[in-house]
Amino acid sequence: MPELMLPTVVVHESFVAAAREFHAHPEPPPWFVAGLDPGELAASDAFERYVTRLLAEPLESTPRPEGFVPATTLWWIDGQEFLGRLAVRHRLTPALEDAGGHIGYDVRPSARNRGHATAMLREALPVAHRLGIDPALLTCDDTNLASRRVIERNGGRYIGSRGVKQRFLVPTT
Ligand SMILES: CC(C)(COP(=O)(O)OP(=O)(O)OC[C@H]1O[C@@H](n2cnc3c(N)ncnc32)[C@H](O)[C@@H]1OP(=O)(O)O)[C@@H](O)C(=O)NCCC(=O)NCCS
Asked: CB-based burial of residue 124 (10 Å sphere; 0-12 exposed, 13-18 middle, 19+ buried)?
């Protein structure tokens, strides 16, 4: 049974394989992996630095680009296999109100349509609640039927669209 865990070097090999999968997939890679070079991450020290950086992101004191907020990244892991990732943003900005919301997620292409995103989001809602978020705002493109389904299966209520982004409120209790 997969578990939602803090980033860990235990899944090094599998994470690098997943990064290669995202890059090879016909859709543009999600932002979390777009800037990563899987070849570089294959080196243990580079992967350790990446994990350390992710683990620091929830801290207010961590320097971050303008417009970014503290965020907790969690990985959906089965044994030593990396299946997906999710980030809980600790608060909203005007940009996140429009697109992004409190929680974003990605499942590696080879693991899709097996219920992982639905389960991963369900497990993340108490994490969001502990961060004082209730309800959580989630958004998805109006063409992203799979993501809409994931949100609705977690109790998401459609509250309208801004441009191509559909917006939902998901109770975290
Ligand atoms: C969206 C995404 C996270 C879904 O992950 P997943 O693990 O495949 O999702 P699940 O298996 O939990 O659920 C997918 C649901 O969508 C449905 N679905 C999948 N493809 C679909 C499609 N083309 N049309 C309609 N429904 C679709 C599935 O049947 C399933 O619904 P069900 O549980 O009622 O059967 C994954 O496709 C992904 O990582 N996409 C790229 C990144 C992304 O879009 N992230 C979300 C940004 S808002």
From this structure: buried
Q: Provide the residue ranges of all domains of the chain, joining segments of one domain with +.
A: 3-131
pTM of the model: 0.97
105 lines ligand 1 (CB under 6 A): yes
Ligand 1 neighbour 165 (Cβ under 6 A): no
Q: DSSP code of 131?
A: T
Q: Which CATH class is domain 3-131?
A: alpha beta
The minimum-distance atom of ligand 1 relative to the CA of 84 is: 39
Looking at residue 116, its pLDDT comes to: 98
Strands (E), 6-156: 71-78, 81-89, 103-107, 136-141
Q: Kindly report the average pLDDT of the chain as a whole number.
A: 98
